[in-house]
Every structure is written in C-alpha cells, then in structure tokens.
Amino acid sequence: MTSSSTNKRERTPRPGVSRVRVALAAAALAGLGCATLAAVPATAAGEALTVQYRQSSTGSDQAEPWFKAVNTGSTSVSLAQVKIRYYFKADSGASYTYACSWAVKGCANITGTFGTLANPTATADRYLEIGFTAGAGSLAPGADTGDMQLRFYRSNWQPLNQADDYSFGSGQTSYANWSKVTAAVGGTRVWGTAPTGDNPTDPTGPTNPTDPPAAGPRLFDDFDYTSSSDPAIGAHGWNVRSNSGGPGVPGASWPAENVTFAKEGTNSVMNLETSTAGTPASTKQTEVLTKATKFLGGTYAARVRFADAPKYGPDGDHLVSTFFTINDLKAPMADDYAEYDFEYLPNGGWGEPSNILYTTSWETYRPDPWEAVNQHSESRISYAGWHDLVLAIDDTAIVYYIDGVEFGRHDSRYLPERPMSINFNQWLIDLAGQTSTTPRAYDQKVDWVLHAKDQVLTPAQVTAAVAAYRAAGKAFEDTVPAS
After folding, report:
1. Cα-Cα-Cα-Cα dihedral sign, residues 359, 361, 365, 371
2. Contact yes or no for 368/347 (Cβ under 8 A)
3. Could you give the maximum distance between any two Cα atoms of the chain, in Å?
4. What mean pLDDT, rounded, does the chain reach?
C-alpha cells in the first residue's frame, strides 16, 4: 500500500548536484482499440479466451474483482499478449491504487493499470486493465490461469461506491463467465461487451494506448557505451561525476570508473557501483547526470534495476538508489527550486527500519536548519529487480508510475518553475547501517532513459516508444532544445 503526505520526510540535501524538477500530469490512459466480440478477424482464428469473475467484497473500502482467464480456443495463448478490462464509475476527484493479494501465476507476473474512457457513460468512465509479464507463461487449450485475487482502492482510503460500476456483479460470489469484463489477445478483443465509451467503432472513441503520440522533442538513450571514459557519453550530453561533495557520507569519493557498461542479452546496461569498507575514505559513490538543465514538463521514464543485497560483503548499509530530476537551490527556501525523485532504500534509513521506496515532489528546502516543503508517496516492500519508472507532468499534476501502475499523484502546487537535469545516483546516507570494515559493494543498473518534452505518455506508450527506437536500431536521440 502506498501513502502520501506533505512536509513529512527529511533527508540529506544534495548540495553538489545540479537538480531537475519535473511536474507530471495525471495521465489519462486511452482505450485499447479492439474488434467487437461478434466479429473476430482471421488473425485471431483459433485464439479464444473466456474471463470468469467473482467479487470478493461488496464493502465500501475497496473493490475486489477476482478473475480466471480460460483458453477456450484451439491454440496456445501467450499471456503477455492478453489484456483484461474491468470498467467502473470513478468517485468524484478520486485516484486509485491497484494491488494483487494472491495469484496462481504469481502477483509479480500480473500488472494493473488504470485508464480513462474518452466517452464516459453513466456506469463507466475508468477501467482497470490487467496485463501479464512474460513470466506468466502461456495457456494451453483448455487451461486457465487459476485465481487472480485482485483489488483496488481509493489512494486516500476514502469510501468508494461499487453499486454504479459497469463490471461489478453484486451477486457474483463464485466464478462464472462474465461478459461485462473484456479480454483482448494481441490487441484484438475476443471476449466481453464493453460500455459504449470503449467502443472502437466510434471515431471519437479512445485510441490504442500502446501507440505513442506524434513524436515531439525527445531524449532517448540506450546507454550503449564502452566505459565511463567513452567520448560519446560527453558528446551525448552526460556527465559521469568525479567531483567531491554531497549527498551522502562526508569525505566519500565519486570515482567515474565505478560507472561501467556491459551487455545483458541484447541490451546495453549502465551499472552504478557504490562500495565501502565502513570508513569515509573507503566509501565510493556514483552519479550520472545530464550536463544541461533543459527539461521541464512532459514524461520522464527509465528502466532501473534495484538490489536489496550487496554483490559481495555484508549487507545492511543505508543505501539510496535513485532516478530523479532536479535544479539548483539558489537560496534557502527559494520558491523556484524543483526536484522529483524515485528513491529506493533497501535497508531503510531516515528513520525507516527496512526497505522502502519514495516518490517525492519538492517545492523547496532549507539545509540549515533543515526545513523541507514537499509531498511524497511511499511503499514499504521490496523493489529488488527491474522496474519501469515513469514520471508524467503537465500543468495540473505530477504522477508517478511503477511497472505501469500509478504509485503517487502529487498536487499542482509542486509543479516546476525552472528547467531541470536528469540524474541517476547511488549513495550511502551514513555508515551506521552496517559498521563492519569488511568491503562490500552495491549495484544499480539502468537499461534506458526517455524524456518526451511537453507530452504526457502512458506507461504503455513509453514501452512502445522504447521498442520503436530499438527496432530502428537507434541507441540515442536528443531533440530537446536548450532551455
């Protein structure tokens, strides 16, 4: 569960880093263009999927739609190609959080993303779209997914009303076929009847959310470099930090050679190694940031791998692994400062006893005496592994997504006034988490980064844009003008 609060979290400022601040907008996910159930095209011949549904809660604190997907066709179906939609009427002003309680296929292999209908009806203006990772595997003919015990709730835990929701069945207390949810395979609807607001034959209806909008100014980097000294890094506008200063352990160094590049499969991956032997002199932290502070509104996204444990040595250090935008603090409590963070603490810190992930939108701060004005969301679970991190900003809101699911939505009062830089860094808050003098090292990996200037992209559109760059063999592009 995530929570959001204002002015609560204090943490070490980053005095030596140029910071970028990004304001993200509430991204309205567009509908998935599908064929009608009655006319399945030839490309879907042999692929048929039935969705069984039961409700596990009629209460007002959360909705609990549980599903089974059944392959009723004659060919195997890859679940990574399957999307299931549950339609509902949003409560006024509400944002929602998705969760998976338990699933036969494993909750880590099931995604949940909220979308908005272009043409709302009396019983539906939003939907929860359920997808699957490659780890969910395939369904043979006649097989089913088993239980998917899912739920969603208002992000502030206020009561919600299910009685006016299109897909809700108050009497559906055991699994049975349910046509008020839809299923698509490879973008073609093969099951269910959608509300008219999701009718793809309506020319004013929603568009395919996996198609990016017409490309505007963008930065994309696949991090296909040979080493931290590769001249292409600087030519592409990046700085591999080597100067001293904060954040983190006073006296720590920032050696550029601790940033390395290697192939993982067909992808080139950047690795930031942070190491220590329990003393300031032995502590080596890492950071890569854009030279230019030219990024403002739009979408910021990166695929990042966090780690809970060191690659060698004893565990327990108060580590911070990050992806963020920031600009410089011109004076204490300056109102044109901006910063937007994804920060993962695998071993806690800042008063937290164990792993926690923060997304934080900053208005300003004072380093001494410490005073902060910010809004943050948090989740106290492990985020070890690869994650797609998306920050979307327009003139109304700042929205953070993790793996396609909305994680936090912050107020427009935290929108940026000045352009920012894009940063990745990994550092130690202190040396109190693990006091051993045995050497240890932690890795943070980055697969790619994308910024779309002044465009709010859905997480699915981000994925599609990255796939298009890779399909075209383009490892780098920067068409974002100087600020």
Report:
1. negative
2. no
3. 70
4. 86
